[in-house]
Each structure stands twice: as structure tokens, then as C-alpha cells.
Amino acid sequence: AKPRGGKLSFYAPPHLIEKPQDVQKLIDDSLVWECKATGKPKPSYRWMKNGENMESTEERIQVANEVLSISRLTLSDTGMYQCVAGNKHGEVYSNAELRVIAVAPDFSHNQVRGQTLVKVGGDVLIECKPKMSPWGVISWRKGSEPLLETSRVSILESGSLRIWNVTKADAGLYTCVARNQFGVASSTGSVTVKEPTIITTQPATLDVTVGESVVLPCQVSHDPSLELKFTWFFNEQLIHFGNHGGFFEKVGGQHSAGDIMIRNIQLRHAGKYTCAVQTKVDSISIAADLVVRGPPGPPTSIHVEEITDTTASLSWRPGSDNHSPIMAHTIQARTPFSLGWQAVTTVPEVVGGQQLTATVIDLNPWVEYEFRVLASNRVGTGEPSEPSKQARTKSTSPKVTPANVSGGGGSRSELVITWEPVPEELQNGPGFGYVVAFRPHGATGWMQAAVPSPEASKYVFKNESIQPFSPFHVKVGVYNNEGEGPFGPVTTIYSAEEEPSRAPTRVRAKSLSASEAEVWWKALPWNASRRRVLGYELRYWSRSEREDMASVQRTVGNQTSTVIRGMRGSTTYYVSVRAYNTAGTGPPSTTVNVTTKKPPPSQPPIKVMWNASNSKIILNWERVKALENESEVTGYKVLYKKNRHSRPSVMETNTTSVELALPVDEDYIIQIKPFGEGGDGSSSRQITIPKIPGPNAVGSASKVSTLSALSTIALSFTARTSL
């Protein structure tokens, strides 16, 4: 059997989902209510007032399905309204009350502004916004008189008052009066007219140079009762004084001046500066353009167009001239061997400001160069360009020979030749080396040897036929992969010599003090065997030391005596002497011994006292006693000088007092030290003897001598620098 078909339909009565609410309105206000319902089929709507259906009988009342709107409400619109939504399955109702009320004029919540400030020539709007329903009539009074409208004075539809091109006569009290059938009310405010603010400084373009300072003026005339506020802008950005690195400073000291100073101007300070002046009644501004002239900016696009062994052709593009025409360009070069950037020689010699090419000359071959360009104008020289890419000059045969060719020394049968290597930047190409040429004095042909290392600085020729200390002519040349270069000048060098073969004789030694001894010997004669003597070498060691730990002291030339210093006191030393030359030292002499004297006294003089009278200073001190291991005191040295930096004078005495004939109008510094055969002992502390008044005060000086002595004794124990 065939199944039967069927259709299922759903239906629903209306259900309100949005209802109108009770509302209270003023006369002349507007009302809009909306009513929404669901249902199937879709509901239809109708509106009722006080139980009767409503129709759009008046233009101000519109009924459109679910929306009811009423404009310009009146008291008669007050009532109970119903929204009815229905379909064939039923109807639903919603009730809402509308109350329309009247209000007498009222300014309690919106008074006319108490005071309005306006400048002469300005415009002013005084608003009047009373609360009243229905809206009534607005009128204005100035003082007690009705205000009449003119070409400058107008009462707007809103009730507000506008006055154009205000004059001083417009100042005063203004009252807004509002009326409707339910009452009248008023509100009063004042208009105060002020003189306008005028910037008296004229707009200008200022022209300054980097590093200078400039004042940007902003002078105004204004109503003295108004406070001014100055604000500055740089390229429309607010200037915060105290920031910007301290370049900007307010300097307008007067109330009517807002001048600012820009110190140590830099290129970045060029631009537009605006001074804005504001009061309670107006605001105005003035702008000045600041042109900053400075050294040129760095050139760009430095390019090496062509390069040879000694020249490089360059090109570049100009940088900014910074408002001062470029007058010249300077080219600098740098290599791995130079100390920073160096000036170079160019063609043309002077590169003008409009020229953007030049050739650098006198370069070294086979060297990597970088170049940079600097531009100059009347202000100065600007920052350098970025360096060019490294470019290497072409190679060529070398031109520079080694410096300081010399030699000599070495071992038996050797000719030692030395020189200073040619710097890498002067080798002119790869494969650099040296050619060493030499010949004995009197010979015509040269012997040659190649030294292929560019760092080499020495060549040794060894041959058993070479006689000791024989003269040779020597010259050193250069070469590289491009070919041979020149030889340097010929110089004379001696072959190696033999060390002296004989020992000095008649060696004697004598102790001079605890730390010094003098040694004598007989000089060796010069002989035909070419064994030169350049001087003598002394070796000395104490009894407690081994000979191989001996100290060494050398003399130069034919000297036959010397003093050994720095020895220890009361010590026996052994001394030997031998001759020396470049080959070494000869055999030693017979060893002699010497015993140094006892050390000098270690105790300084104490209880130093002084007395000054006339032009004499009398010094006394306590005798110094030598210790058992010290040399006896044989006398004293008195050292005196006028100030700390002068050289001291010395007086010797074998007593414990001395009289110095010194002017008493000078300050003196004095020290005393003992001496004996072991040398000078320890010094007393410094004694400062102050300047004493002249002859008229001799008596008083004598009277206070004891006090002076006591004072000086105290001073003598104050640490001072030794004389």
C-alpha cells in the first residue's frame, strides 16, 4: 500500500516582547513609543487613548503599526495609552501613561555666565538657556535699558546674545529675561573688555653659524591686568626647557618679553621657531626661521676610478653645503702601515669646491689604500666621508735600499753584515729580497749573495782565509718579482777580530770607604796581531761568594783605574781584571784582594742647639759614639742652605760646635752628620732656623736665644726631607 503524505503547521497567539513605559514630558517636547510582539501569523498593531482607537488625525500625531509618535506635545495629550497586538488566535494589551506638564521660566540650573572676558575687536557669545515649558520669549537688557539689536548685536534663535567687533563701550552688565504664560525669570552676567595682546616683534629669518648663540625675540604689548603665558615650538614640536641638552634657555626677563636663547647652535637647530602668547582673552603667535650655517656635510660615493703603481684617480659626490658654499676638498689616505689618516698630494694640487674628481700621486706601489674626502667652506672643514673600498696599487721593481748597513764582530774567519730591513710598504711588490755584495779592500771584483727573506737583517760570510779585523767594502741591494732595484752606498766593515791574548799586569786595589774601593792596572800595548783592546772588565766577589757569581764592571778605552761602588763594609773582596773587544774577553789578571773599611757611624747627632747673635749662628751638639763594628768618628759635616731646593754648603769640623757667619735676615735649613774612614754617617733631622730681626733687635734675640733653642730642638725632631 502507498504511504499517505501529510503537512504539520504551527500557530501561536501574540506575545509582547517590548512595551511602552509611563513617561512625563514638557509642553513642546516630542514622544516616541514602540510596541513589539511575537506570534504566528505575524501580529498586527493598533493604538488606543483612554479606551478609544487612535487615528493620525493631526500631522503631529503619527500611528504607524507598532510605533506611536507625537511632536509638539500639549496639555491635551495627557492620558492613558494602550498598544494592542493581535492575530486570529488572540490579542494582547499593554498600558502606559503620558503626563504633559507646563514649567515657568527657571535659571536655577543654567545661569548666564557671571563674567565674560573679551578683547577689543573680538567677538563674544553670551548663552541664555533657561528651563521653561512651553518655550516663551527671550529679551536682553544692558544695565537697566532694553538691548536693541544692531549690525553688531544680535539675539539668536536660541536666545543667546552675540556681539561682534567688541568695543570698550560694550563692557557692562547684561541680563537675559525669559517669559511664557506661566511666569518670567532673568539672569545677569558681566562683559569685561580688555586691550588686545599684540606681538611687537616682526617676523624674521635669522642667519647664524654653528657654535654661536642667538636670541629669538618675542616682545608683546598687552592689557596690564592680564597674565601672559609664553610657549615656544620648534618645527611645531613643544620645546621643553631644561631638556634638549641645555641648548635652549629662557632669557625674557621682563613681564612682556618671552625671548629665548639658543646656545652653541648646531646644524640640527635649523628650522621654524614659533612663539605663542596666551592670555585669558586671546592667543597669538609669531614665527621665525633660523638658518644655521656650518661646515659642509661629508661627501658621499667615494670611488677609485683607476689605479697605477703610484697614482689613484678618485671621484665623489658632494654632501650638504650647510648654507655656505663649498670652497675646497681635502683628500686623505690610510694604509695598514700608516698611523691613522694622512694628507696626500693630488693633481690638481688644490681641489676646488666645485671639483668632484682628483688624482692622488706619490703613492707606494703594492700597498692597499683607503681614501676619504673632506669638504671645507668659510665656516670650517666638515666631517670626512666614509672610506672608499680598499684598492691596491700595482707592483714595480723596488727603489728603496736598506738603511744603516754596518756589521763587524762575529766569530773567527767571519764577516758579519747587518742592515735595517726595508719596510713592507716600500718593497713595491711580492718576492722581495736582498742582494749582499762585498770585497776585501783593494780587490776589484764583488762577491754577491742573495737573501730571499724580506725580514732578514743579517748575512754572515765565513771563510778560513779571512784575516782578523780586515776591512771589506760592503753594499746591499734589493729585488722583487718585478726585477732588481738599486744598491745602497758602499760602506767599510771589518771582519771578526780575536779576543785579547794577554792579561793586564800590576793590578792593585785600595779601600776608600766602607762601600768603595779603587783598582789600578797597567794597560796592554797595541800590537800588530790586530787584537784590539776596547776596554777592561773587572770582576769582583766577596770571600763568601763563588767566583762564577762575581759582579762585573767595565771601563771604556785606555782607562787604567776605576772605583767600585756599592760594596759591603768590613768585607774582603777578590778582584781580577781582563781586557775585552768585540770578540770577547782575554785572560784574567792575577787576583788581588781588598778589605773594605768599617761602616760609618749609624747614630745621628742629637741634642742640637743653636743661638743667633748679630750675623752669627752658633751650633752645638752631643758627640757621636761609633759602635764596635763601625769606624771611628773623625769629624762632622755641617750642611746648610737657604731653602729646600737650593744646593747645600758644607763646613767640616772635628769638634762638636761650629760658628756660622750667616745673615740673620734669611731662613736656613741645617743638618749635621758625622764621618770617619768608613764614609759619611747618618744625618740629624733637618733644623729650620727662622729669620731674625736686624741689629736693633740683637739684645732681644740674645734674651730669647734659650727659648729659640728649645723651639728649634722640637723642630729638629720633626721629620723633614734630607738635604
TrEMBL record:
The keyword Nucleotide-binding does not apply. It is found in: Cell membrane. One of its GO terms (molecular function) is cell-cell adhesion mediator activity. Residues 298-396, 401-498, 503-599, 600-695 form the Fibronectin type-III domain. SMART domains: FN3, IG, IGc2. Keywords: Cell adhesion, Cell membrane, Disulfide bond, Glycoprotein, GPI-anchor, Immunoglobulin domain, Lipoprotein, Membrane, Repeat, Signal. This is Contactin 4. It comes from Nothobranchius kadleci. The gene is CNTN4.
